Structure formats: C-alpha cells, structure tokens
Amino acid sequence: MGVVYVKNDCVVRWSQGQSPLAKGEVWDEAAELVAERPDLFDTEPTLIKGRPAKAAPAEAGPVEAGPVETATAAPGDKRTRKPRGS
Prior knowledge:
mainly beta, 1 helix, single chain, two-stranded antiparallel sheet, 22% strand, 5 strands, elongated
C-alpha cells in the first residue's frame, strides 16, 4: 500500500461530489479520488519541514510586481465619499 501527497490547496469536484484538499495531505494511492484525478497528487511529499518549497515551473516566467496602492490616508488627509444612491 503506497501513499500520494496533495499538490495544492483546492476543492475538487469529482464523481463522488466535492472534496477539499490541503497541500501536503497524505492519501492512499488506491483511493477513488486519486484514481480519478491523479493530476492533483504527487508521489513525493509536497511539504517537508526544513526543506524549501518547490519552485514554480521555469516556463511560467518571472512574476512582475505591479504598482502598490496606499490603502489608508496620510495623517491629516480627509477622503471624500459620494453619498449612497448617487
């Protein structure tokens, strides 16, 4: 009896309904969900304490950060707001 590990956090819809999956969960490789959706599982542990997480695939390319917005007003600034229904 072998085991497989969930690759990512998700909720999967399959023939038996919906099942929430958490990254690193251990599943029996003979489970119905594993047989139906093997793309969601890996034979290598996905989370190992003390080991860095797997890097994203190289073909995904670098992630570019967009401009950062300020969420709050600076001290002394007042924000205007339109009344509801306008």
